[in-house]
Amino acid sequence: MKQLITLFGAALICAGLSAQDREQASENPDLYRHIRDVARKEILLPDIDGYKTLKTDLHAHTFYSDGDCSPEYRIKEAWRDGLDAIAITDHIEYRPTDSKMEKYLQVEKRGETDLNVSVGLAQKLAPSYGILVIPGTEITRNPREIGHFNALFTTDNNKIPNDDPLVAIRNAKAQDAIIQINHPGWARNDALLTEPAKQALAEGLVDGIESVNGEEFYPRNIEDALNNNCYVCGNTDIHDTSYDFYLQSGSYRNMTLVFAEDATLSAIKDALLARRTLSYGFGTISGPKELLEKFFLASIDFKKISVKDNGSGTALLTNKTSFTYYIKVPGCSVNILLPALSSIRLGFGQDAKMQITVSNMYYGVDKNPEVVVAL
Ligand SMILES: [Zn+2]
Ligand SMILES: [Zn+2]
User: Fold this and answer.
1) Could you write out the DSSP letters of every residue in 24-53?
2) Ion ligand 1 residue ranges (Cβ < 5 Å)
3) What is the separation of C-alpha 154 from the centre of its chain, rounded to a whole number of angstroms?
4) Pairing of strands 32-34, 52-57
């Protein structure tokens, strides 16, 4: 007990010191500098099927199109937010900052914009943060009739633009790019796929579809993705900062969870081509049923803690992850909260099995995965 008290005391002293630690400047003894700790938020998630779970954002903007931040800021932000990889995908056709800057600087229009600059700047800084940068761009057309498409893993964004959106998509595909249908329900009265999107799908040009973009969630597009052999993704499409949009309200930023052989760009591309992804946004996880079930089961430890004579009893469910789960069990109409890094007790029947519906996971409209766990 004494040792415990001593340790507790030491911890308190350390906490007190680190909160106000400062260093006397060698060049000026009258100057003290506060020590600023900038920490990365680690997000604990399980690996599944022998693959590494990578936290990625496949859609982000900088002030090279209409975002508020520099490409370098996006890298620092991604690191702080716990990501492994981020795609820099500035708009091709919508770049209001160009004309704003020309106006601020009072210069004449300076010719064609180089569409690779933001990616290049992000790539330059990223290695020192251990962040992988997926080069990309967003083909940006009328959201009602055509829609927006991300081209990822592009090699030269300047060779993509074309008046015909399908030709632009084909130009990207000629670079071996991954094509993704973005925010299918944004600025529209429904989330039905547009005619050009359907045509691109029919031509085999599309690899993925967003089920989550910013605060928006489109359950019907999970089904579009799965029915068309596409990956399901959840991305920020961030224009302001992740602090403004997510962190200040206590949320993680949206993520596409990519189940990859290793933490490399080529393994991420392989995983996208193999459709091994889940989408995360504001606590909602979506994707293929089988991956959802595996991910949930790998997230939770199930343990019997007491058994009655008739075989029924009480189990302990421990959520080892940073995600919160909402579950339903037979005989209980309300959701049971299984918070991040926490345990709850639940009863089980005489067959020593638990039937669990995961209410915050979706593989389609009103489709929640259900697992049966033998204790
Ligand atoms: Zn867009
Ligand atoms: Zn966008």
Assistant:
1) E-SS-TT-EEEPPP----------BTTBEE
2) 148, 182
3) 20
4) unpaired
Closest CA to 94 of 64, 69, 74, 123: 64
The Å distance, Cα 108 to ligand 1 centre, comes to 28
pLDDT, mean of residues 349-367:
97
- Confidence band for 255, pLDDT divided at 50, 70 and 90: very high
pLDDT digits (tens, 9 = 90+) for 12-37: 444 444 546 899 999 999 999 998 87
* Ligand nearest to the CA of residue 239, numbered in listed order: 2
φ and ψ at residue 98, rounded to 5 degrees: -55, -55
Do 298 and 47 contact (CB within 8 A), yes or no?
yes
Residue 62 CA, chain-centre distance (Å), reads 17
Question: What is the pTM for the complete model shown?
Answer: 0.92
100 CA → ligand 1 middle, Å? 20
208 CA to centre of ligand 1 in angstroms: 14
- Ligand 1 centroid, distance to 5 Cα (angstroms): 56
